Amino acid sequence: MLNQIIDSTMRFNLEQNFESESSANQAFADGESLTVEQAIANLQQRQDLGQRYYAAWWLGRFRVCEPAAIDALLAALADEADRAPDGGYPLRRNAAKALGKLGDCRVVPVLIQCLDCSDYYVRESAAQALEMLGDPVCIPVLLKLLDGGVAAAKQVPGKPHLVQPYEAVIEALGTLGASEAIALIEPFLEHFAEKVQYAAARAMYQLTGNPVYGERLIQALQGDDLQLRRSALMDLGAIGYLRAGEAIAETLAENSLKLISLKGLLEHQLKIKNNCTDPLTLSDELTDLMKLMDKLL
Fold first, then answer.
1. What is the dihedral angle through the alpha carbons of 230, 85, 125, 27, rounded to the nearest 10 degrees?
2. Nearest-angstrom CA–CA distance, 163 and 154
């Protein structure tokens, strides 16, 4: 059973990667296939902003960790040429996301600087990248973005977002194990935006281990809004909350997203098993989880 579910999960990952790449290619004019050298050159040139944007995505998507690629992405974080109508920096956003995927913690100081960018989405991408890199040195700066608490976490007039990327910041603090953030994060469980509430529940579970926060995310799977159910699925997968298995499988959402969530639970449990004295013995809960995944494949 274990080998079958791992094989199925690997097949699912390959299918998702293929679909993701295909979708991204369709979003650009020619969907060109690049070499590493071409991607770096496209990112560094100044004439075609579309090619630069695509190159930044491509380098992150294919985990290109070469020093020249990292240097080009770092340079893109200071780009002034690619500006959105609202004054934002699309290329900087993509570069920050890509750097988070490359696993090189030498970029952390520059990403921390991006948390001061005027573009909300650059700050959001930087927080997400710092979460992926896992270096706790960024915790104090992330904490500062929670200044003012829930009272300050308001909608920006005329914009579709809050004054700070609270969801990304709170999730990063949870993943980084920032126990000093507990008192700051807990009030966000009552924020008016459901996704921020879910981020707070996710982080509080990671920081305290209290199942009440995992159960709150399970309750969110029963909501009427599909986007919110999708968000709760991803949060449960991120924290590996095993009790959520059946609720995830029964959620009214796409099977692909349910599998991603269940995969998170499985990976979390397998990591625990690897630390056991007898990692080959499967618990009933883990066996049931594998069966749920198998039914969705």
1. 60
2. 6
Find the Cα–Cα–Cα–Cα dihedral 229, 12, 293, 132, rounded to 10°: -60
**Residue partners of 60: CB distance under 8 A and separation at least 6:** 73, 94, 97, 98, 99, 100, 101, 102
Q: In the beta sheet, which residues pair with residue 198?
A: none
- As its CATH architecture, domain 22-104 has Alpha Horseshoe (1.25)
Q: Kindly report, residue by residue over 150-180, the tens digit of the pLDDT.
A: 999 999 999 999 999 999 999 999 999 999 9
For helices 90-102 and 49-61, what crossing angle results, to 10°?
20
Burial of residue 1 (number of CB atoms within 10 Å: 0-12, 13-18, 19+): exposed
Angle between helices 90-102 and 67-76 (to 10 degrees): 150
Query: Is the pTM higher than 0.85?
Result: yes
Closest by alpha carbon to 175, among 220, 222, 142? 142
pLDDT in tens, 72-85: 999 999 999 999 99
